[in-house]
Write a structure and sequence with these properties.
15 helices, 304 residues, Sugar ABC transporter permease, mainly alpha, MetI-like fold, ABC_transporter_permease
């Protein structure tokens, strides 16, 4: 039998379209959900942000009026300022504290699993519970301030939730208490992925441990840092329930954040157009974080 006959009788491979057909069929509901609900809802929100909708959504075009009014509102400007302060400090402290805790855990300490559970436990609580707990702890009448004063330091003052100039830092304390454990676990997973031979080679060469972390380990953990950055940053942009539980945006509007501004205008002030405009600005903020991450992760892999 000739080679020509063999080539004609050999069964054809299924086309690329029909490979893993069962998996592709199973993913259709998820794809439709993403397209209809998430993508459709996003487009719907952006479109109606250019309207003068009040109690109900109506296609009465207002151009950029809602955005001009948004950026002229002092309450929105305060919320943006609070988000910047809260976001920058939250990123810095959560990364530093999380990495230090992970580095200590990576030393094969005793009762490691117990310590991991203790540090990660606050993340299992809802932000409402965390906010209420820290509202009590930071209350000057029966919280930290009262306990320290009863110990003899009668002039001690620590009431961040009642001071407009530092209230955002009181919210930051509660956020770090809850979220740092997750960052620690992500960093610890990255550290455990480092080959032991690298540590042995660094010790043989006499490289100090801090230089090993700074110049060898941290650059190797770049994917972990980027993933953690996206997770933490997305949580920062949509922070809402922690603020409501602790201060309800007060004193006054001193602890206002964008997510609370959106909720109040959409469901209390009955100004859907203004709420949609604020939501669109928040969407752009998230896109500024996610798009560079996607480019760095997937674009680099394609080039490689």
């Amino acid at each position: 039998m000739t080679s020509t006959t063999l080539s004609t009788t050999r069964p054809k491979r299924p086309s690329q379209l029909f490979r893993n057909l069962s998996a592709k069929l199973a993913s259709i509901p998820m794809i439709l959900t993403a397209l209809v609900i998430f993508l459709g809802g996003t487009v719907w929100t952006v479109v109606y942000s250019f309207t003068s909708s009040r109690l109900l959504p109506r296609l009465r075009w207002a151009g950029l009026e809602q955005y001009e009014r948004l950026w002229a509102t002092p309450r929105w400007l305060v919320s943006i300022e609070n988000l910047l302060v809260y976001g920058v400090l939250s990123l810095i402290f959560s990364f530093v504290i999380g990495f230090v805790l992970a580095a200590l855990m990576d030393q094969k300490i005793r009762f490691e699993s117990a310590f991991r559970t203790i540090f990660l436990y606050p993340f299992a609580l809802s932000f409402v519970v965390t906010g209420l707990v820290w509202q009590w702890l930071l209350n000057p009448e029966f919280g930290v301030q009262n306990i320290v004063r009863e110990m003899g330091w009668t002039s001690f003052t620590f009431d961040p939730l009642y001071d407009q100039s530092i209230v955002i830092y009181g919210i930051l304390i509660a956020s770090l208490w809850q979220g740092t454990g997750l960052v620690m676990c992500l960093m610890l997973a990255g550290l455990r992925g480092i080959d032991e031979d690298i540590w042995k080679a660094a010790r043989v060469d006499g490289i100090p441990m801090w230089k090993t972390y700074l110049f060898i380990v941290i650059p190797m953990m770049r994917p972990v840092f980027i993933t953690t950055l996206v997770i933490v940053a997305s949580g920062i942009v949509r922070v809402y329930d922690l603020v409501v539980a602790q201060t309800s945006g007060g004193p006054g509007t001193a602890s206002e954040v964008p997510a609370k501004y959106v909720y109040d205008y959409m469901f209390q002030a009955q100004n859907l157009g203004q709420g949609f405009a604020a939501s669109t600005v928040m969407l752009l903020t998230v896109a500024i974080v996610v798009v560079p991450w996607a480019y760095l992760e997937f674009g680099r892999r394609k080039r490689v």
